[in-house]
What does this fold into?
Amino acid sequence: MKIVPSNKIDYQIFIGLNDSQIYEKVIKEQEIIEMINDFFTRKKIDFSLLKATGGYLYQNGEYIIENVLCINIIDNKQIDILKLTQSLSMFMNQENVLVMRNNTMVKMG
It folds into this structure.
């Protein structure tokens, strides 16, 4: 069994659930999860959605621990990742959204 590089790209989008001005959730977590699920279902895009907790240092020096959503999208050419993250950021009123782009590996054999 070998693990070899593939030509597929994995995008991970990390978005906090706290509003960047008041440092608290203003949108219910289940509401944003349903919105994300509905969006990807309508577009027929493969994705995974994970809930996590993370720390974030705001530009003003305020540090908080908050709930975070991580959206994984693997090798989808029909979606504009930057446009999606900008829309999520504006909707959630985020200071920043983390987007990671990774090359995937495939297990052979």
Remarks:
- The radius of gyration is 16 Å.
- The longest strand covers residues 2-16.
